[in-house]
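Q: I'm writing up a methods section and want to include an example of the input and output format. Could you take the sequence below and give the corresponding predicted structure tokens, formatted cleanly so I can copy it straight into the document?
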Amino acid sequence: MYAELIAELSSNAVKELSIEQALANISAIWTDLKLDIVDHKDVYWKIRGTDELFQALEENQVTLSAMKASSFYLPFDKQVEYWEHALTKISETVDMMLTVQRQWMYLESIFIGSADIRKQLAGETVLFDAVNNTWKDVMNRIHKNPNALQSTHTEGLFQTLVTMNDKLEKIQKSLSEYLETKRQQFPRFYFLSDDDLLEILGQSKDPMAVQKHIKKCFEGIKILDIVQPSRGGSKVYEALGMVAPDAEKVNFIAPVVVDGPVENWLIDTERK
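A: Here is the clean output for your methods example:
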């Protein structure tokens, strides 16, 4: 009788110890696990990879679920509940950080890298600059303390990320509408990807940089025969003709003035 009782108590103690050790292991993992933060363009910080983090999250969440299924879970319910909430917070925050980072990196190359785009989308530029400054502040703080548990539990961080994401989506929508307007003005822009079109619009003051996209807009034309401004001649770029893929050159009846909005002088080119 006593032997059976002792055996049962011993078994129960072993099972409770197993839960206790598993919780200690989870705590140890998140005491050490850091977000993988690396330099970006010598100006910013960004998250490089999250494989280790999400693997640990998945394994630990499975472990916690198994604990709750055990009849010996009750003495540890508060600890288990804490870690369930903590891991969910880490997962949701890092997911939102990655979402914001993807949008921010794409838009940063547009709004920081192109003075023309900033001028043409002045309202969106102001909005992006505000998001950009907030993102730098957030990532600077995380770089100083990259511990995944501590950094993702910074008060107000998740809501800040949600707000940034909303603003970036608004900017992206305005950008898409802007590109659609340009495509309606010059339908051949529909042949171009958004990135190619943004590159063209962002370099409107440098017609030579637009040359590599000409063949995508006009079938049978490789480049335009563009001459640069000269002291004794024209004060602006001029397209004298077009060059086919086989190098055959055809002159226009009259030069096309390559100045101002790209779509305008491309429309003139189309008419020639």
